[in-house]
Design goal:
By secondary structure, the protein is mainly α. It has 6 helices and 2 strands. The mean pLDDT is 91.
């Protein structure tokens, strides 16, 4: 048996991840509105796919604020939130995966987006 599992919104509390991303940028003066508008512009930049790229998001924020020197810092802060993803899994995610593995099922993790972000 093969089980295909979507990472976002199924195993990972993606809305909480986005909140953590936004909070990581608050010390740099990035408002909730700016975060949301640049996030949307980032993921919808290509009509053919939905793809998040932290570097592009950082560039869009820096451009909107006129602070191009912050691209690296913003990118690093966005990637830093991914280091906390274990704490962002839904409570039953690990148990579900362990139970699926114990049955001998093959598990395929489905996600899409920028490979560097997804691999992180």
């Amino acid at each position: 048996m093969t089980i295909i599992v979507d990472l976002d919104h199924m195993l990972l509390n993606t809305e909480l991840l986005k909140l953590k991303m936004r909070q990581a940028l608050e010390p740099l003066g990035v408002s909730q509105e700016l975060f949301k508008s640049t996030y949307s512009a980032t993921v919808n930049r290509d009509d053919n796919r939905y793809s998040y790229d932290a570097q592009i998001h950082a560039q869009k924020i820096a451009q909107a604020t006129g602070k191009s020197e912050l691209v690296g810092e913003i990118t690093n802060r966005l990637y830093g939130t991914v280091d906390q993803t274990e704490n962002l899994l839904y409570d039953d995610a690990k148990e579900f995966l362990a139970n699926a593995r114990s049955t001998g099922a093959s598990i395929i993790l489905l996600t899409r987006g920028d490979p560097a972000w997804q691999n992180k």
